[in-house]
Every structure is written in structure tokens, then in C-alpha cells.
Automatic annotation (TrEMBL):
Membrane topology summary: Peripheral membrane protein
Residues that bind Zn(2+): H399, H403, E422
A Gene Ontology molecular function term of the record: alanyl aminopeptidase activity
Cofactor note text: Binds 1 zinc ion per subunit.
Site feature Transition state stabilizer, where: Y484
Active site residues per record: E400
Keyword line: Aminopeptidase, Cytoplasm, Endoplasmic reticulum, Hydrolase, Membrane, Metal-binding, Metalloprotease, Microsome, Protease, Zinc
Catalysis: reaction(s): Release of an N-terminal amino acid, Xaa-|-Yaa- from a peptide, amide or arylamide. Xaa is preferably Ala, but may be most amino acids including Pro (slow action). When a terminal hydrophobic residue is followed by a prolyl residue, the two may be released as an intact Xaa-Pro dipeptide
Single GO BP term: peptide catabolic process
Taxonomic lineage from the root: Eukaryota, Viridiplantae, Streptophyta, Embryophyta, Tracheophyta
A Pfam family annotated for this UniProt entry: Peptidase_M1_N
Compartments where located: Cytoplasm; Microsome membrane
Name listed for the protein in its UniProt record: Aminopeptidase
Length: 963
């Protein structure tokens, strides 16, 4: 963008003149549109974005608009006519946008977002409606830091409607945001596709616009593309016109929506298709026309009406791979039907396309009617995808489709309310997965989401669910475990407090009330409060407006239960937060559950039935029944040992077994429980039957093992023996080979167990892995190495690799290079850095920066670094930081920090990291750096407290020789 000043022209252009100036306003193929613009729907905007005093706008100077968190509200877009012409070979694009704008207050300025676009001042003009005038700006200033274009006119713009026209040029970048290129192979030839990724604030990198979620508008998109390509956007195609080697593709006008949901894709694809025939999930035959039943929500146009045809749902894949889209397609059709029922509002668009993109920054993106995915989150290969891959596809599809209502139809008013989008979609994706795959026990698996939320929120550097956002650079970092996982967990807590039916009905009312509009957190609480008659606002404010969560300490004293809440922090410090805690409680049996709101700091409770219950031999009390609440519980010694007994005898529910372990682990890390107590507790899970609980016990054990490598290396032999003895009986039961007809969870467990044994260096697991791997290397279809155990086998193989014997590493690279399945590539990448030899780890890390690894996949190699090499990875990160910081943005960049810094476990390393990032931090990584360093400090403290546990050696000796 160039800063320029132009003289002021006031001209009444003839249509010819307009054409000569490359304005394309009148070239629409739609006959009604070419002569006269359709009248705008009468849209009401529920918000008024904060503006510098509106009445003053006419007097302001361009300076007023700099350094503001949000755009001024004196003019708002109603309808965008957007035309884009990507050049896939040159990786550039040209475009023009014509925006119907509503000028609501006197102003000489129009201020829009734009970034990385080339706009010549002569390419901007404004035509007040009905005036016959075209106003040219006197000055077009681009404020680079604010990513805005300040367009100044010589005179005050007339109030009411007008059309802002801007022509621009840009680059199809390689950063996976804005309008970007992704590279694929077709018939052995490398090709580019053009893809958009606009959330949170990168639509401005594709076209000048009001790039904030509350400026909703209608979009009419036109693409000029090579004839042989498939061109997709949010809405169905209305017409294609071929002109020589290119074609112009006209899309239907969208309902009003936010800019971050606009999408455009151009490339070569195949697809599979099905329809949501109302009420059934059977796909309709392909020959039926792909049309929608519904009227446009604007009531403007109407699509043909065919009996039995529902919404067209397609999964687009690379050419030749459409069969891999079938599983996602089936899930999508079922999900759309379920959500239509659940939200009591039909899916708002005439079609739903989902597409796998080879280069993709996040997991998936919910663009309205055109959802984009990483290949691993959408494609499923019957022979080479694992059970975990299948579950991932189902959950991601359900999540993105949930956004079509929660996010797209009802949109957050500002990024402070991002959690409404993400927390809700996360929660409801489990609801859908549970409905379609009840045997997966996803609500138990959901506890892993809560745990990740708990861990981040136990840092002083966490943030409230409703978080202030003052600059666009801060937005990326709040797509984190607080918005997603704590968000989902507090929704679950509320749902379980209010009851499923009231919750669903109130949600449906909320969706109806705010459809085609924007909402804030409070709006949701109001709907739920109305629907339930409960004090939802008071209850929930304590969870969304302050960071952190409580640990409720429970003591049994004189037949009474004493409760006290304090803010839980992993550092062991006490925070000052206080919550309204929905306590649930069971005493000796699940048949009677007690519930109450705990508001104070401290209280005593007389429990009915407590006295009788206390007399029983197997007396136990469990708070936070089934772990539906977002709080931890710390029991007095007596109650804790009773619970351990209840775990051992399998009296508790799976969710409660999970909770007892997770709380104890967290308390131990914070120095509130002894490590030996935690180790005894882990031993109580030796007969565990639930996959998620056992997997959690395994992960907890491995993390203790990692910490002990620093704190008590002399105890590692016994620790290893204890863990291997603990795992072996399970591993023998599940074996290496899938049993016919066995369940999904068994398949997941097999991989988890074998990976853990491999990481612990269990020799017979490693030998068996190598034996099977060698067969697989010769025959990729061998039944000896099914997809569910491949990652474990690769990790095991890497235990045998060192710098003088690298054949295992080379074989893995061969598999990586030969497969065309992304999930297989990810399995290999995830194992490459798990050799115990630092030189091999370095080589793997260097490989991740090579051109052979897509930038989107680098993270998997880093995640595979094992305890032995955390410091190698940290040194490597420092050496390569400049390149990394230049090459990666958003999450891809912050991941490098989280994964590499957080595992360090000494204060010395913490100081080093602090020093290193002091001069290298910037707004987009500041939060992550702070959190990662805090995690190092916490680990270091845990190491110190472990060193002080005098009986650790004896207890481990005892545990290691028990079996
Ligand atoms: N809206 C997000 C995609 C996104 C993430 C955009 C970060 C911009 C920044 C999408 O709905 C999402 O949440 N995707 C998840 C997958 C989901 C199943 C948790 C992701 O990308 O990891
Ligand atoms: Zn999401």
C-alpha cells in the first residue's frame, strides 16, 4: 500500500468512463443486477461498535483512526460484490470490491481494513446512492500497523447508502493465511491451488473490508479462473461463463455473515456427495440435482424445489482420493440432521462443501458452507488410517458443523467472546460423537479436554475466558485451551447443573433470537436464565470473568463435612479468586447425589445419611461426581485413602476414577501431596478397565518418570520396573494384533500401551516392534503392522537408532517419502526425534526445517522429542530461532515455544529462556512465552520438592518388587 494524496474530483461519470477505469460493477451476469442493484434487506445491527464520538467524525483527521482496537462505526458495510482473479502460476491475484455502505453519521472518512494489498489511490471511489456523483478521495493512507486504509474525501459524505469501490492486487502467499497457495501433485507435476483462511483477521489480506465479526454483510462473489479448475466459495454457483482458457464463475449471494467466514478455493479436486434427506441419513443417488429446499434467509431468491432432496453435502479431496472422503461425508450428513434438531433451526445454507487442503495452519476452519480441513482431519483410509484418526475426523467434522449455527449464524460480537464459538463447538462435538458412536465413551475422553484446560488455567499467566483484546496480533493466541477446553468444560458444568433438556431448549431460543446477528456471553446467560429460572449470570460470571478455578478442600470432622475453596495454582501459591461452585457429592453409593451451590470461602455441611454411611467398611465420599464440574478436590488423608480403596475395588465410575488420579497428580505437582502418595494411587489402577482412565494413568506415570530423570535419577531403575510391571499385564491382554470384532477403545489402548512400553525401553516390545516393522518395510499391506500400532512400532524402532546405526531412521524416512497418506506421514514425523541419541535428534530436527516437510507438519517432529533430548531441542530452537520466527506465524510459531520450552525442568533453564526471549518477544507470542517459562518454574519446583521426599527410594523399591 502506498501513501498518496490526490486532488479532489467530483465527476458524474458516463457508464463508458466507468468501464475504462476497470470498474466492473456492471458486468454481473445476473440480469436484474446488471441494470439495478437489488435493494438491500433491511438489516438491523444489534451492536454499535465503540467509536470515537460519532458526531465528531466529520471533523476528525486521519490520525484519529490510528492505534484503535476497533474500526469506527460511522459507516458499515451491507453488501460486498467481490471479484477475484487468482493467477495460480505467478502466485498473484487481482481483485475489486464494490461495497454498499451505510453512512450513519457525518464523516469525511471511510476507514476499512486492508493489509499486504496493493491499492492505487486512483482505484478508490465512492458513489453516494442516487446522487449520480462519484467522489474520488483526496487522500488514501495506509496505516500499516493498524492494517487499515484511511480514505479521506474533501467533503462530508451524505448520510445513507453509497457504494465504495476499490481495485487491488496481492500475492498468493505461502503463510497459510489470507489468500494463499497450497502445493499439491497431479500426475507427477507440482501445482498450486488458491485457498483462503481468514479467521481471525485475515480477510483484509484478500480484499479491503470491515474485518470485524460484528460487521456482518451479504457477499456476492465472482471468480475468474482457469477453465479446468474447480472453483468453490461459500454459496453454490449460479452461472459459469467460459471465455477462452478462463471461466468466470458467479456464486449466489450469501445471507449476512462475518468476513472471517468468507472462503474461496481454486484447484483440481474430486468429490463424493450425499444429501440430508430430511429425517433420514441415507445418501440420495448422485443423479438427483443438488439443490436446496430452503428459501434464502433474505427471502430474496428462491431455489428450485425438488421433493426428497435435502442439503447437498460434498467432501472434496485430491484427484483420485475421493473414497477417503466417505467417512467424513457420512458423519457430516448425520451431524447436520442432528444439529438441525438440537438447535431447532435448519442448516441455513443451500449446500455444505468440506475440503481437504494439503497446507493448512490449524486443524479445520468453519467457513460458512465451505469448511476447510487439514487432510488428517478429514480423510479416512480404510486400510491405513488408525482408530484415533477416525475419531479425530468425526470430532473435527462435528465441531466445524456446530459452528455453522454457533458462530456463523449467531456470531460473537467481538473476539472477547471467542470462547462462545470455540468452547461451545468443542462441547457439542462430543455430544454429536456420543450420539453416533456411543461405544467410544467420548464423555470420558472429554476429561482430557478438561485436564488440558485445568493445566493452563493453573498458571498465573492464564487469562479469563472472556479476555480483553486490544490488538489484532493478540487474537491468535487466545485460540487456546482456555477458550476451547475450559470453555467447553464450563458449558458442560452448566448443562449438568441445569439439566440437558432445559439447556437444549434455552440454547435453541438463543440461536433463534440472535440468528443473522451477533451475541455476547451475557446474551447466552440471559437465554439460559430465562429458560431455567436459575441464577445463571451470577453463577457463570465467576467462571468466565476471572481466570483460574478453585480447589475445594474437604475434611470430615465431627460428622460434618468442612469445605473450603481456594484458587488452585500449579506453583503452589494461593490465588485470591472465589467462585460459585456447583458442588455435587456422593456418599458410599451413586444412587443418591447431593447438590448445592457453594458460594463462600468456607462452610460446614451436615450430610444426611453420612453417619450411617461412615459406619461401612468401604465408606467413601466423592465430590464433583463424574467430573462434570471445573474444579479440583483435595481430600483429607482419611478420605483420600478411602477413595484409593474405592478405585482399587472398582466401585467408582470411570470418570471419577479419572478425576481422583488427575486431582492428586495436580496437587502433587503443586507440592500439596507427596509423590509417594501419587505413586501408591497409580498402583491402585492395576485392574483399570476404561481406556481413557488407563491412558491417563500411563501419561501421568511417564510425566513423573520424566521429572524424576532430573530430580532422582538414581531411582529411575525402580521407577521403570514399577511402570513396566504395571503395564505388562495390560499389554499381554491386548497384544499386537487386532482381535476380530474388538472395539474402538481396545484399538486405541493397544497403541497407547505399546508406545509407552517402547518409550520406557521395554526390550521385548522393542524386539517385537522391529520384527514386525521389517516385514512391513517389504510389504506395506502386511497384517502384522496394522495402523493402530504403527506409531508405537516406529517409536520402538527409534529406540534402536544411534548415530552409528541409522538404518531404522532411514527406513522411516523411506516410508515417509513413499506414502501419500498424510496420517502415515504424521506417524513417521512423530517418531523421528525419539531416539535416545542427541545427534540423531538433531538430524531429525534439521529435517523438519527441510523442504521435505510441509510447514504445517513441523510441530509433529518437535512433539516427538523424548525426555532424553529436551535440552537438545531447546539448544536447537535457539540456534534456528531467527529462521523459525520469520517463516512461521500464529499457532505454528507459538507451538515451537510451547513444545520446546515447557518441558525444561530447572530454574537455570527458566532463566535462560527468559533471557533469550527478552529481546525476541512480540505481541503475537508474548502470552505463550510467559506461560511456557512459568511451566518451567513449576517443574523446577516439583523437582525440588521431590528431592525432599526422604521415603521415595523405599516406596519405589517396594512398588517395584510387589508384583
Ligand atoms: N475456528 C477454528 C479454526 C481456527 C483456529 C482459526 C485458530 C483461526 C485460528 C476451528 O473451528 C477449530 O476450532 N479448529 C480446531 C479443530 C477443532 C476440532 C478443535 C483446530 O484447528 O485445531
Ligand atoms: Zn472451532
Amino acid at each position: 500500500l502506498r501513501k498518496t494524496a490526490l486532488p479532489h474530483y467530483n465527476i458524474s461519470p458516463s457508464p463508458k468512463k466507468r468501464k475504462a477505469k476497470r470498474f466492473w460493477l456492471n458486468s454481473s451476469p445476473n440480469p436484474s443486477a446488471s441494470s439495478e442493484r437489488p435493494t438491500l434487506p433491511n438489516l438491523s445491527f444489534p451492536h454499535t461498535p465503540p467509536t470515537p464520538a460519532v458526531t465528531m467524525a466529520a471533523e476528525q483527521s486521519a490520525e484519529h483512526f490510528r492505534g484503535q482496537a476497533r474500526l469506527p462505526g460511522f459507516a458499515a458495510p451491507r453488501r460486498y460484490d467481490l471479484r477475484l482473479t487468482p493467477d495460480l502460476a505467478a502466485c498473484t491475484f487481482a481483485g475489486s470490491v464494490s461495497v454498499s455502505v451505510d453512512v450513519a453519521a457525518p464523516t469525511r472518512f471511510l476507514v476499512v481494513n486492508a493489509a499486504d494489498l496493493d491499492v492505487s489511490p486512483g482505484d478508490v471511489h465512492f458513489a453516494p446512492k442516487g446522487s449520480g456523483q462519484v467522489l474520488l478521495p483526496v487522500e488514501v493512507t495506509s496505516a500499516l500497523e493498524d492494517e487499515i486504509l484511511i480514505i479521506r474525501f474533501n467533503e462530508v459524505l451524505p448520510l445513507g447508502e453509497g457504494t465504495l469501490v476499490i481495485a487491488f492486487q496481492g500475492t498468493l502467499n505461502d503463510k497459510m493465511k489470507g489468500f494463499y497457495r497450497s502445493v499439491y501433485e497431479l500426475n507427477g507435476e507440482k501445482k498450486n491451488m488458491a485457498v483462503t483462511q481468514f479467521e481471525p483477521a485475515d480477510a483484509r489480506r484478500c480484499f479491503p473490508c470491515w474485518d470485524e465479526p460484528s460487521f456482518k454483510a451479504v457477499f456476492k462473489i465472482t471468480l475468474e479462473v482457469p477453465c479446468e479448475t474447480v472453483a468453490l466459495s461459500n454459496m453454490p454457483v449460479v452461472e459459469e461463463k467460459v471465455n477462452g482458457p478462463t471461466k468466470t464463475v458467479y456464486f449466489q449471494e450469501s445471507p449476512i455473515m462475518s468476513t472471517y467466514l468468507v472462503a474461496v478455493i481454486v484447484g483440481m479436486f474430486d468429490y463424493v456427495e450425499a444429501f440430508t434427506a430430511d429425517g433420514t441419513v441415507a445418501p440420495l443417488p448422485h443423479y438427483l440435482p443438488q439443490v436446496s429446499l430452503s428459501l434464502s434467509p433474505l427471502g430474496g431468491s428462491c431455489w428450485p424445489h425438488f421433493p426428497f432432496a435435502g442439503t447437498s453435502v460434498r467432501v472434496y479431496t485430491q484427484v483420485g482420493k475421493s473414497a477417503q472422503g466417505k467417512f467424513a461425508l457420512e458423519v457430516a450428513v448425520k451431524t447436520l440432521i442432528l444439529f438441525k434438531e438440537y438447535f431447532a433451526v435448519p442448516y441455513p445454507l443451500p449446500k455444505m462443501d468440506m475440503i481437504a487442503i494439503p497446507d493448512f495452519a490449524s486443524g479445520a476452519m468453519e467457513n460458512y458452507g465451505l469448511v476447510t480441513y487439514r487432510e488428517t482431519a478429514l480423510l479416512f483410509d480404510e486400510r491405513h488410517s488408525a482408530a484415533a484418526n477416525k475419531q479425530r475426523v468425526a470430532v473435527v467434522v462435528a465441531h466445524e458443523l456446530a459452528h455453522q449455527w454457533f458462530g456463523n449464524l449467531v456470531t460473537m460480537e467481538w473476539w472477547t467472546h471467542l470462547w462462545l464459538n470455540e468452547g461451545f463447538a468443542t462441547w457439542v462435538s462430543y455430544l454429536a460423537a456420543d450420539r453416533f458412536f456411543p461405544e467410544w465413551n467420548v464423555w470420558i475422553q472429554f476429561l482430557e479436554e478438561s485436564t488440558t484446560g485445568f493445566r493452563l488455567d493453573a498458571l498465573a499467566g492464564s487469562h479469563p475466558i472472556e479476555v480483553d483484546v486490544n490488538h489484532v496480533d493478540e487474537i491468535d493466541e487466545i485460540f487456546d485451551a482456555i477458550s476451547y477446553r475450559k470453555g467447553a468444560a464450563v458449558i458442560r458444568m452448566l448443562q449438568s447443573y441445569l439439566g440437558a433438556e432445559i439447556f437444549q431448549k434455552s440454547l435453541a431460543a438463543y440461536i433463534k433470537r440472535f440468528a443473522y446477528s451477533n451475541a455476547k456471553t451475557e446474551d447466552l446467560w440471559a437465554a439460559l436464565e430465562e429458560g431455567s429460572g436459575e441464577p445463571v449470570k451470577t453463577l457463570m460470571h465467576s467462571w468466565t470473568k476471572q481466570q483460574g478455578y478453585p480447589v475445594v478442600s474437604v475434611k470430615l470432622k465431627d460428622g460434618k463435612l468442612e469445605l473450603e475453596q481456594t484458587q488452585f495454582l500449579s506453583s503452589g501459591s494461593e490465588g485470591v479468586g472465589q467462585w460459585v461452585v456447583p458442588i455435587t457429592l456422593c456418599c458410599c453409593s451413586y444412587s443418591v447425589q447431593q447438590k448445592f451451590l457453594f458460594r463462600g470461602k468456607q462452610d460446614d455441611f451436615n450430610l444426611s445419611g453420612l453417619v450411617e454411611c461412615q459406619k461401612k467398611d468401604d465408606f467413601w465420599i466423592k465430590l464433583n461426581v463424574d467430573q462434570t464440574g471445573f474444579y479440583r478436590v483435595s481430600y483429607d488423608e482419611e478420605l483420600a485413602s478411602r477413595l484409593r480403596h474405592a478405585v482399587e475395588t472398582n466401585i467408582l465410575s470411570a470418570a471419577d476414577r479419572y478425576g481422583v488420579l488427575d486431582d492428586t497428580y495436580a496437587l502433587c505437582m503443586a507440592g500439596k501431596q507427596k509423590l509417594v502418595t501419587l505413586l501408591h494411587l497409580i498402583a491402585a489402577y492395576k485392574n483399570e478397565t476404561e481406556y481413557t482412565v488407563l491412558a491417563h494413568a500411563i501419561n501421568t506415570s511417564l510425566s513423573i518418570y520424566e521429572m524424576m530423570a532430573v530430580a532422582a535419577p538414581e531411582e529411575l531403575v525402580n521407577m521403570k520396573k514399577f511402570l513396566i510391571d504395571f503395564l505388562e499385564p495390560f499389554a499381554q491382554r491386548v497384544g499386537w494384533d487386532a482381535k476380530s470384532g474388538e472395539g474402538h477403545l481396545n484399538a486405541l489402548l493397544r497403541g497407547t500401551l505399546l508406545s509407552a512400553l517402547a518409550e520406557l525401553g521395554h526390550q521385548s516390545t522393542i524386539d517385537e516392534a522391529v520384527r514386525r516393522f521389517n516385514v512391513f518395510l517389504e510389504d506395506r499391506e502386511t497384517p502384522l503392522l496394522p495402523p493402530d500400532v504403527r506409531k508405537a512400532a516406529y517409536v520402538a524402532l527409534m529406540q534402536t537408532v544411534n548415530k552409528s546405526n541409522k538404518s531404522g531412521y532411514e527406513s522411516l524416512l523411506k516410508i515417509y517419502r513413499e506414502t501419500d497418506l498424510s496420517q502415515e506421514k504424521v506417524r513417521v514425523l512423530g517418531s523421528l526425534a525419539s531416539s535416545p541419541d542427541p545427534d540423531v535428534v538433531r538430524e531429525a530436527l534439521n529435517f523438519l526445517l527441510s523442504s521435505e516437510v510441509r510447514n504445517q507438519d513441523c510441530i509433529f517432529v518437535l512433539r516427538g522429542v523424548t525426555a532424553a533430548a529436551h535440552e537438545v531441542a531447546w539448544t536447537w530452537l535457539k540456534e534456528n530461532w531467527d529462521y523459525i520466527a520469520e517463516t512461521f506465524t500464529g499457532h505454528l510459531l507459538t507451538y515451537f515455544i510451547t513444545v520446546t520450552v515447557s518441558p525444561l525442568a530447572t530454574d537455570e533453564k527458566g532463566d535462560e529462556a527468559e533471557e533469550f526471549f527478552k529481546s525476541r518477544t512480540k505481541a503475537s507470542i508474548a502470552r505463550t512465552v510467559k506461560q511456557s517459562i512459568e511451566r518451567v518454574r513449576i517443574k523446577a519446583k516439583w523437582v525440588m520438592s521431590t528431592k525432599g521426599e526422604a521415603d521415595l527410594g523405599n516406596v519405589l523399591k517396594e512398588l517395584a518388587h510387589k508384583h
